[in-house]
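Annex B. Sample input.
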Amino acid sequence: MDRLVVYNTILSTRLVPLFYTPQISVAIDVTRCCLQAGAKVIEFTHRGEQAAVVFAALRQEFNKDCVLGVGSILDAPTAAFYIAQGADFIVSPIFDPSLASLCHRHGVAYIPGAASPTEIVNALSYGVEIIKLFPAAALGGPALLRSLRGPMPWVKILPTGGIPLEEKAIHAWLEAGAVAIGMGSELLRREWIVTQRFDLIEDAVRKALNWLHAFQSQPRT
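Annex B, continued. Sample output.
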């Protein structure tokens, strides 16, 4: 998928649910629940056994039905493998110039992690469009994002890590200037995935999206 389409879809939906499971059938059900709830962008993380096999199955199952990317990528060879498997975007907890070059050569969206002004500017200099602030909550929360955007108001930041499934918390990040939010275990909870409580997963994703859209519709003073 064209990387500009990927970026615009992230910016319009403002939510990136992310998860990992070694079970293909469960991964398919979790993804389907996210889509049914209204999410359009899904990140499957490269974090455990069978990750590549599960991702390939997801790509085949949801060929053109969603924007499907892979996260927790630390090196260009791994990214190249997933790009060959049809990944629409690559997410990393770090910034790596070789990853940026690889993704840009293939027209694939690259969302690297950064935690400081220097890391952010370094990523921007390589043509990165959206930067993942990670681990967002541990780094300082919305207050940090507000401070970072002071001298760099044009930066598009996607905070990820430790953001609770609470309307107040989500709105605080948006008020600080987040263009979208990445949510993993707080949204797609491990116990729900293990026990296959797909109804709870769908409800949580729908709730988060409703809060995000409610913020967008609020009048600004």
